Amino acid sequence: MTEVARQGRVARAGVRARTGVREGLKRARHGLALAVQAGLAAGIAWFLAHDVFGRPSPFFAPIAAVITLASSVGQRARRTAELVLGVAIGIGIGDALILLIGSGPWQIGLIVLLAVVVATAVGGGTPLVVQSASSAVLVATLTSSTGLPWTRFFDALVGGGVGLAVMTVLLPLNPLNVVRRAADPALRALADGLHEIGTGMAERNRDTIGDALSHLRGAETSFAAFSAAVSAARENVAFAPARWRSRGALALYVDGANHITYALRNCRVMSRRADTALGDDEPIPEVLAVSVGLLGDAVELLRQEWAKGVEPVAARERALRAAAECGQAYEEGVGFSGGVIVAQVRTAATDILRASGVDYAEAPRLVRRAVGRPHSSRRRPSSRSALGHPPT
User: Fold this and answer.
1) Could you tell me how far CA 305 lies from the centroid of its own chain?
2) Has keyword Acyltransferase (predicted)?
3) pTM for the whole thing?
């Protein structure tokens, strides 16, 4: 290996190391709030169970508090309550049966069986069943058979209650930060996918459009996480007075999440139809490719404006420009698939307007007006700006 090559490898390794350190610090910063919550909840749970209620070794209290916090990040209040109940049920059943029948392989099996049956009978979902079974196993394998009945069950209730109190009242996570982190990858994936579709149409490249469709399908996971974060944040704000001031900025995400998900679905239909148009050798006017790129710009602007907590005026303007450009495609001539693409652009533009806060009836009216506006009355954007180079 030459000296130049060796230096190059060392330089690349250094870059990777620095990048890894930065990413690690970023993850640690995002996890710091949860760590503080868990430490506070564990300390309070032990204090209440040991010093207030007089339990000599209430180690299940801090365990239940930490399990509640760690398992309920991004989940809704009902699922969090199930986690608390599941831990308590498992510990209670395990405690009672060990006192009656002792411990051993068949006793552990019976304890888990009964914990799952009880958790299912009370109508619990998967979180309650899993926590009941795992808590029962913990009791059966790691604790002795001495002690009063239901003591550890009581510890679990104390710890679970403290965990809920910390996460909703005493030290709630900032729901706006949680939603922003969940929304960012979803919106980036949608914007990038639209820019890829526009580029593929302009270059008549089916491979590019196929890649775009794959990326948009892969974005389903990010959008599901975004939707779950919005639901959890809505409840977090409702129960945590300290976070009520976040309601205004959070409303942008809450009101727009469903509509931006609709836009994702419409854009996947658009990408499939674009592939069909190229396969059938249909004409694709340049303005149609430009309009799809403008939709990508609109989504990117929406992401930026939501992150800043401002009204997404620029995103609305760009979505309407996309609608105006696609209307010109009819004048230049499109085939059947091209007509479907025009319709999908109009629908996606309406979705983006709705996500930006435009009224249900007003959004389609604005799109219709933009499509019908004479093309000479608007300035045509450059292809470079529309296809993959959104403004900052």
Assistant:
1) 18
2) no
3) 0.65
pLDDT digits (tens, 9 = 90+) for 76-120: 556 566 666 777 777 777 777 777 887 778 888 888 888 888 878
Are the CB atoms for 222 and 185 separated by under 8 Å?
A: yes
Class of residue 255 by CB neighbours under 10 A (exposed 0-12, middle 13-18, buried 19+): middle
The CA distance from 224 to 230, in Å, is: 10
Question: One-letter amino acid identity for 274?
Answer: A
Measured between alpha carbons, how far is 36 from 174 in angstroms, rounded to an integer?
Answer: 13
How many Cβ atoms sit within 10 Å of the Cβ of residue 362? 11
CB contact at 8 A, 352 and 274: no
Half-sphere exposure of 16 (CA within 13 A, CB side): 6
Nearest to 87 by CA among 162, 35, 30, 14: 162
Using alpha carbons, select from 285, 79, 227 the residue that is nearest to residue 164.
79
Nearest Cα residue to 157 out of 96, 52, 95, 84: 84
Nearest Cα residue to 199 out of 278, 260, 264? 278
**Number of neighbours of residue 6 by Cβ within 10 angstroms:** 10
Residue 57 CA to its chain's centroid (Å): 39
* Residues near 367 by beta carbon (within 8 Å), at least 6 away in sequence: 320, 323, 346, 349, 350, 353
Beta carbons of 299 and 345 less than 8 angstroms apart: no
């959004």: which residue's tokens? 363
Q: In a 3-state reduction of DSSP, which class is residue 75?
A: coil
Q: What Rg do the C-alpha atoms of the chain give, in angstroms?
A: 28
Nearest residue to 177 via CA among 70, 304, 307: 307
Instruction: Give the torsion sign (CA, 217, 219, 221, 223).
Output: negative
Q: Six-digit token pair at 87?
A: 């831990």
Convert the pLDDT of each residue in 294-326 to its tens digit. 999 999 999 999 999 899 999 999 999 999 999
The SS3 of residue 56 is coil
Cα gap 114→116, rounded to integer Å:
5
Count, residues in the chain? 392
